[in-house]
Inverse folding.
């Protein structure tokens, strides 16, 4: 796979850290910088003390090596700094992990699967409104409460520019808030080793202006009616429908990502490949060559005309 195409598909992969774009990642970034720079400061002082111990003259050593240095450098300084960092870290954690609802916030459920993301947009009562996979559309300036679950093993949800990082643990629901302050595309990545293609479990958040978001939402809530076609028939006959759902058709499999709007997604294979026709066709015929170990079987036996028809059908599902 060509690195340039990969970079284009991902718009900024690897996800930049320490470059916050919202109120839930800014404080994390501040703390990270304080730890990093403070750590370097302490390292510099320790190296200086070591240098003095090795090369310093007797007068200098006597002046710096008394009991006072031990009390200040070895006791007072660590106690004060570590206590301050502990208080900072704990208050930040409790603020970021507060789960009391905020007026007007959006609710989404994201479930980690081996090795992709199931996404459900919820209404106020927690009912699923829109189903999608591998990407999340949000309006700017509005907090989004993400309910994190796992269908199999432990994954970890992380969009570094929009919020903190949170594990997705089977059997429980963790909550993480994110928010984007400017429209754009924000890359994410599974941050907990979850088996073979863990490194290829990417994610994309698309932040829209409020008006664009309303348009996007209207497009997704309108009932889908894909026209009859050869590709649609083959999709249902050749086994694809056993694992994938296409809204408005007989395909209602739940094992793999929902494909009702596959053509409008930014990427294929969970954030790792550009969503263009050649890649789509290669993915259908042999996804194992593109994302080794993923759970979709290869369909190398598909005759060329059938592969073309299914690719056309997928490409029409906007
Ligand atoms: Cu999912 Cu690592």
């Amino acid at each position: 796979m060509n690195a340039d195409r990969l970079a284009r598909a991902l718009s900024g992969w690897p996800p930049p850290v320490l470059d916050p774009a919202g109120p839930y990642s800014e404080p994390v970034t501040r703390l990270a910088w304080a730890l990093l720079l403070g750590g370097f400061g302490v390292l510099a002082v320790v190296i200086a003390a070591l240098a003095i111990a090795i090369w310093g003259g007797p007068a200098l050593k006597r002046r710096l090596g008394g009991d006072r240095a031990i009390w200040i450098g070895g006791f007072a300084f660590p106690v004060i700094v570590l206590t301050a960092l502990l208080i900072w870290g704990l208050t930040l954690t409790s603020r970021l992990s507060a789960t009391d609802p905020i007026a007007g916030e959006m609710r989404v459920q994201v479930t980690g699967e081996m090795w992709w993301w199931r996404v459900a947009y919820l209404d106020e009562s927690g009912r699923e409104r829109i189903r999608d996979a591998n990407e999340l559309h949000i309006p700017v300036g509005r907090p989004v409460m993400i309910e994190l679950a796992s269908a199999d093993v432990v994954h970890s949800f992380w969009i570094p520019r929009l919020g903190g990082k949170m594990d997705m643990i089977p059997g429980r629901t963790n909550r993480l808030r994110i928010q984007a302050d400017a429209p754009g595309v924000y890359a994410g990545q599974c941050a907990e080793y979850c088996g073979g293609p863990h490194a290829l479990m990417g994610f994309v958040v698309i932040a829209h202006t409020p008006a664009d978001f309303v348009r996007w939402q209207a497009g997704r809530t309108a009932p889908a009616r894909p026209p009859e076609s050869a590709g649609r028939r083959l999709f249902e006959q050749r086994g694809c429908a056993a694992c994938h759902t296409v809204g408005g058709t007989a395909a209602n499999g739940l094992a793999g990502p929902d494909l009702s709007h596959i053509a409008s997604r930014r990427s294929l294979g969970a954030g790792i490949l550009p969503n263009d026709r050649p890649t789509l066709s290669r993915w259908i015929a042999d996804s194992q060559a593109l994302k080794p170990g993923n759970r979709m079987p290869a369909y190398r036996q598909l005759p060329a005309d059938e592969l073309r028809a299914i690719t056309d059908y997928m490409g029409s599902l906007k």
